[in-house]
TrEMBL record:
<feature type="domain" description="ABC transporter">
    <location>
        <begin position="4"/>
        <end position="234"/>
    </location>
</feature>
<keyword id="KW-0813">Transport</keyword>
<keyword id="KW-0547">Nucleotide-binding</keyword>
<dbReference type="GO" id="GO:0015423">
    <property type="term" value="F:ABC-type maltose transporter activity"/>
</dbReference>
<keyword id="KW-0067">ATP-binding</keyword>
<dbReference type="GO" id="GO:0055052">
    <property type="term" value="C:ATP-binding cassette (ABC) transporter complex, substrate-binding subunit-containing"/>
</dbReference>
<dbReference type="GO" id="GO:0005524">
    <property type="term" value="F:ATP binding"/>
</dbReference>
<dbReference type="GO" id="GO:1990060">
    <property type="term" value="C:maltose transport complex"/>
</dbReference>
<protein>
    <submittedName>
        <fullName>Glycerol-3-phosphate ABC transporter ATPase</fullName>
    </submittedName>
</protein>
<comment type="similarity">
    <text>Belongs to the ABC transporter superfamily.</text>
</comment>
<dbReference type="GO" id="GO:0016887">
    <property type="term" value="F:ATP hydrolysis activity"/>
</dbReference>
Length: 238
């Protein structure tokens, strides 16, 4: 069980209140997509769930456990970023296993988990290559591989496809959907792209200026937007 429950969260930087009072339930094993214009607080919310940013007020539970003040490494989450810096001098196998090595995981177990991740992501034939010998899409898969090997309950994606070209984005959308169905994990996916939200989400969360405008299934938001902002963002007919 890895439902994510956010209750009454406030985030204030100095005197600037970026998120006034946000509550949200992300169902266990859902693919929830958080959308909204640039600067509305999507990354900030994700970073608070990950523990990379302290909440100013409120609480966060993951799988029923209060993680509001837990270390990022104790939350059972993995975060995949837009810029996926791989270590250029390491092979794909070493890049994927690096976090486990830092955690002093025995080598045999690292190898087994890297092989398993490579199988899921179809990286098997590429394990001995260096990042510069990979395409953009393959590099992104290696970055996702680094998160899979840690067996997180919750994956957090912050605009992971925004550096890829259109064709590759379409392919990666399909691959992420497949990944979601293969893994027993909850995924929270941030994007500012309506098409990604409409095609990938079980649940869309629309934000504007730190405030959730509506939460629901894509077609429900499309057919019954709560306000003109949601209608405009989703592209509902007038
Ligand atoms: P999004 O990911 O939706 O584009 P962000 O969460 O990155 O938005 O940012 C939301 C707002 O919070 C922006 O106005 C941004 O300038 C501000 N912000 C984010 N991080 C900080 C920080 N560390 N210090 C001050 N302001 C910040
Ligand atoms: Mg952002």
């Amino acid at each position: 069980m890895a439902e994510v429950q956010i209750t009454g969260v406030n985030k204030t930087f100095g005197t600037v209140e970026v998120i006034p009072n946000l509550s949200l339930t992300v169902p266990n094993r859902s693919f929830s997509v958080l959308v909204g214009p640039s600067g509305c607080g999507k990354s900030t919310l994700l970073r608070m769930i990950a523990g990379l940013e302290e909440v100013s007020a409120g609480s966060i539970t993951i799988g029923g456990e209060d993680v509001t003040h837990a270390e990022p490494s104790d939350r059972g989450i993995a975060m995949v970023f837009q810029s996926y810096a791989l270590y250029p001098h390491m092979t794909v196998r070493q890049n994927i296993g690096f976090g486990l090595k830092l955690a002093k995981t025995p080598k045999a177990e690292i190898d087994a988990r890297v092989d398993e991740a490579a199988e899921i992501l179809q990286l098997g034939p590429l394990l001995d290559r260096k990042p510069k010998q990979l395409s953009g899409g393959q590099r992104q898969r290696v970055a996702i591989g680094r998160s899979i090997v840690r067996k997180p309950k919750v994956f957090l994606f912050d605009e992971p496809l925004s550096n890829l070209d259109a064709a590759l984005r379409t392919q990666m959308r399909v691959e992420l959907a497949e990944l979601h169905s293969k893994l027993d994990a909850t995924m929270i996916y941030v994007t500012h792209d309506q098409v990604e939200a409409m095609t990938m989400a079980d649940q869309i969360v629309i934000m504007k200026a730190g405030i959730i405008q509506q939460v629901g299934r894509p077609m429900d938001l499309y057919n019954a937007p709560d306000n003109p902002f949601v209608a405009g963002f989703i592209g509902s007919p007038k």
